[in-house]
Amino acid sequence: MLRILLLLAAFFGFTAVALGAFAAHGLKSQLSPDLLAVFQTGVHYQMVHALALLAVVLLGLHAPGKALLVAGGLFVLGILLFSGSLYLLSLSGVRILGAITPFGGVAFLGGWLSLGVAAWNLAR
After folding, report:
1. What are phi and psi of 123, to 5 degrees?
2. Among residues 54, 57, 81, which one has the least CA distance to residue 69?
3. Which residues contact 67 (CB under 8 A, 6 or more apart)?
4. Residues 6+ apart with CB under 8 A from 36
5. Residue 67 in contact with residue 121, Cβ under 8 Å?
6. Which of 29, 38, 78, 94 is least crowded, fewest Cβ atoms below 10 Å from its Cβ?
7. Phi and psi at residue 84, in whole multiples of 5°?
8. What is the residue-wise DSSP string for 23-90?
9. What DSSP designation does 9 have?
């Protein structure tokens, strides 16, 4: 499972850089400033959580546990729901897609909470 999470961390990191460049160069003249900011927020959260996913994998190599796998899964889900909904919203202009975004935020929060549980269990 750690191998899959590592592959996903690499994929999400790569695509965050690519999407950020796409936004800066290709979308700048196509989107309004507010929709461009929405897209860039998606990129930012995707990159932060790709790095968090990498940290989960590295920690999992030294201290594997269920809480780490849960954290990794929630970070992946959060990227898909949070960043994905922001990308779709900004490119389509369909504002109702923003209703999905908080579910991704909750997944991120759950991932960080699970990571905290994993850290707590390390002390034992």
Report:
1. -70, -15
2. 57
3. 114, 115, 117, 118, 121
4. 23, 27, 28, 90
5. yes
6. 29
7. -60, -45
8. IIIIITTTS-HHHHHHHHHHHHHHHHHHHHHHHHHHHHHHS--HHHHHHHHHHHHHIIIIIHHHHHHH
9. H
Contact 36, 66 (CB under 8 A): no
Instruction: Render pLDDT for 95-116 as a digit per residue (tens, 0 to 9).
Output: 999 999 999 999 999 999 999 9
**Longest distance between any two alpha carbons in the chain, whole Å:** 54
What H or E segment, with its residue span, contains residue 8?
helix 2-22
Contact 88, 31 (CB under 8 A): no
Task: State which amino acid sits at residue 107.
Answer: A
Residue range 23-81, pLDDT digits in tens:
999 998 899 999 999 999 999 999 999 999 999 999 999 998 999 999 999 999 999 99
